[in-house]
Amino acid sequence: MVTGKVSVEHPLVDFVGDGFVATITTASLIAATEGFASLVVDAAGVGRRVLLVTGRGSRVTFGLLQLLSATGAAWVVRSSDGALRNALTGRTLASFDDAFRETGTTGAAADPVLPLEPVEAWLQVTASVTHQARDETTLGGTLELLTAQLADAAPVGWGVNEPAGLHWNRANVTRFVRGRMPRVSKIYVAGRGERAMTATVRVSRSARGVTEETKMLVALGSDEGIARQRIVDAPAVLGRLADAQTVLVASAVLLRGRADLSIDPVLAAPPVPVAVVLGPRAVQDLHLDLTDLETRFGAFRAGRPRIPALVVPFTEGDGWPQFVNLAREFSVIDLAKALGLPAVTEGL
Fold it and tell me: From CA 276, how far away is CA 273, in angstroms rounded?
């Protein structure tokens, strides 16, 4: 049912609020379908964001989670008694409007982490690489390398929405992206192999050529020994990526979740750092002493010997203390600049 003054003429709109349009679903799995994506676009066109309202039993795909995050959308769980909470933070909400307000406005504590059964280790890898804008440039190499070496899999389908129904072909992906330039292109990718894999690829024009950002999620399986080995292998795989591509920045983190890679509406445990890659530009901008970092943090060089990237593993014990110790080496502002992040203020 549609109530209020609807500012977006879209079949998925169920009601509107202050600065947002809401869609309600009882589906068990919600994906970044053509319909949902068009709702996001239509809402943005009139300055509104999207509110996804589900029950406790609904899950979203990795692709939809990326879409929600990129567009400032929110996901709210409504219980049978009418109680509302943010699906990903657990924060209780007094109203749907609170979904888009700053944390803490309701004064309510977050729900505890809810157990998921069954759960297994996930590895999420994010890598930004740069290409020269040449006719011979072909996209998708980053994803193929990562899937082969971390998931024992290969991309099999791609598309601008989910499900990714087009046969994976790097030349076709490149042709599609080139035809849309200078607009940003984002595609969803499905994989097949020994382990479940899903990914998104975002391509944009940059001052230096073309930037390709790949986000991949891999289910490492229920065998903890095999999963641990994949985690230990991740820094070396990122090093091989830096040998093959011009990496701007890359990272790998450990998560836990369902074997099918769907995301539950629960307050999940924080990600555990596994490795980070600082590309040649970041190494130069931060004026890094590579020998010192190799000695103190077990880092190693990759890529071109003259202007190398630096790979820093966090696989010895708990990754967080190692990551924090590395972060203390840098100014927040300098690190943000080197990684191409928006300007930040010291102390944040």
Answer: 8
The pLDDT assigned to 103 comes to 53
Residues 312, 338: Cα–Cα separation, whole Å:
16
Q: Collapsing DSSP states into helix, strand and coil, what is residue 179?
A: helix
Assigned CATH topology for domain 15-100? Ribosomal Protein L15; Chain: K; domain 2 (3.100.10)
Retrieve residue 211's tokens. 């930037």
Please give the single-letter amino acid code of residue 126: T
DSSP 8-class letter at 102: P
Residue 110 DSSP symbol:
B
Distance CA 343, CA 327 (A): 17
pLDDT of residue 107: 42
Q: How do the domains of the chain map onto residue ranges?
A: 15-100, 120-338
Q: Which amino acid does the sequence have at 294?
A: E
- Residues 142, 245: contact at Cβ < 8 Å? yes
- 236 closest CA partner among 338, 311, 294: 311
